[in-house]
Write a structure and sequence with these properties.
This protein has about 60 residues and is mainly alpha-helical. It has one domain: Helix Hairpins, CATH 1.10.287. Helix content is about 80%, strand content about 0%. The chain starts with a helix and ends with a helix.
Length: about 60
């Protein structure tokens, strides 16, 4: 997910997206622990998406 795409979203949309991505992180961790995860690099990418979303939310909060 690109930061530019995220910056165009509203705060509410970002919060929903953050919830969805955190759920995906949980599912990936669960799959990893049970040995079902094939693409372990996906975990790193999804965690970065969470960080991007949190950063943009903080930027929006500071710019109010």
């Amino acid at each position: 997910m690109k930061a530019k795409e995220l910056k165009d979203l509203t705060a509410e949309e970002l919060l929903k997206k953050k919830k969805d991505v955190k759920e995906e992180v949980f599912n990936l961790r669960f799959q990893h622990s049970t040995g079902q995860l094939e693409n372990t690099a996906r975990m790193k990418l999804v965690k970065r998406d969470v960080a991007r979303i949190e950063t943009i939310l903080k930027e929006k909060e500071l710019n109010k």
